[in-house]
Design a protein that fits this description.
The protein is an alpha/beta fold. It contains 8 helices and 10 strands. A 6-stranded mixed β-sheet has the order 6-7-8-3-9-10, sandwiched between helices. A 4-stranded antiparallel β-sheet has the order 2-1-4-5. The structure holds adenosine-5'-triphosphate (ATP).
Length: 238
């Protein structure tokens, strides 16, 4: 069973074709970077994967469940970290996570255990009693990821999760998410920053709604830097 299976996916905004015949499969435990310049279609794809938009063409399976036919079951297997933070700044870290657990129907001891496990996974246990307002940007992002894992999803989507973070926080977040993939989580990480991608990562390059490449970063870049390979591929060389 694949973590994410996208077949023949298409989407248009009126006459504007945003995604065209997209096919992508991400295996459990794989870290797949969805690399694309502005306007490539990354947000549109995420909107379809999270059911903000209903896919008019093609098919999406999450953890083997069809998003159109079994939307609730499929969505229950999905964790999402959106670009815009949505934490309650005045609640503590733990309270924020408990609230989110409750939204998933998880309460009492089970919720406490899930929150503790999620904070441990992201190295945030010692921050549990602090209000989110007191955390720096990097720790807030880690918390967003912990929150996305509360209901124990099989698939984690992250939409440019390092936007606005300093270099150290970006490294910490990318390391944490690679660790999660190594533990079996299927990860789709949308970015336009090539330095977040490791040679062993899978890279799907999206450009003008089409998949231009799909291979490991090492194969994609060959002897050049990933940045150069990416700019050559998308025709955006300086
Ligand atoms: N509501 C809309 N109406 C018309 N065109 C749209 C709309 N939303 C997006 N588009 C167009 O669809 C294409 C894909 O946009 P999308 O936002 O998915 O790209 P993206 O890869 O997420 O870009 P960015 O990195 O800038 O967020 C772009 O050409 C964009 O201009």
């Amino acid at each position: 069973m694949t973590g994410i299976e996208i077949s023949c996916l298409g989407y248009s905004y009126g006459a504007k074709r945003a995604l065209d015949d997209l096919n992508l499969q991400v295996a459990p435990g794989q870290f797949c970077a969805l690399l694309g310049p502005n306007g490539a279609g990354k947000s549109t794809l995420f909107s379809l994967l999270t059911r903000l938009f209903v896919a008019p063409e093609g098919r999406i399976l999450l953890a083997g469940l069809d998003l159109a036919r079994q939307p609730r079951a499929a969505m229950a297997r999905l964790g999402v970290v959106f670009q815009q933070p949505t934490l309650d700044l005045d609640l503590t870290v733990r309270r924020n996570l408990l609230y989110f657990a409750a939204l998933h129907g998880i309460a009492g001891r089970a919720a406490e255990a899930r929150v503790t496990a999620a904070l441990d996974r992201l190295g945030m246990a010692e921050r549990a009693g602090e209000p989110v307002r007191a955390l720096n940007g990097g720790h807030r992002r880690r918390m967003e990821i912990a929150r996305a894992l509360i209901h124990d999803p099989a698939v984690l989507l992250l939409d440019e999760p390092t936007v606005g973070l300093d270099a150290a926080a970006r490294v910490a977040i990318t390391d944490h998410v690679h660790d999660l993939a190594a533990q079996g989580l299927t990860v789709l990480w949308a970015t336009h920053l090539t330095d977040e991608i490791r040679d062993t990562d899978r890279v799907a390059v999206l450009h003008r709604g089409r998949l231009l490449a799909d291979s490991t970063a090492a194969d994609l870049r060959g002897a050049q830097s990933l940045q150069t390979a990416f700019l050559r591929l998308t025709g955006d060389e300086p």
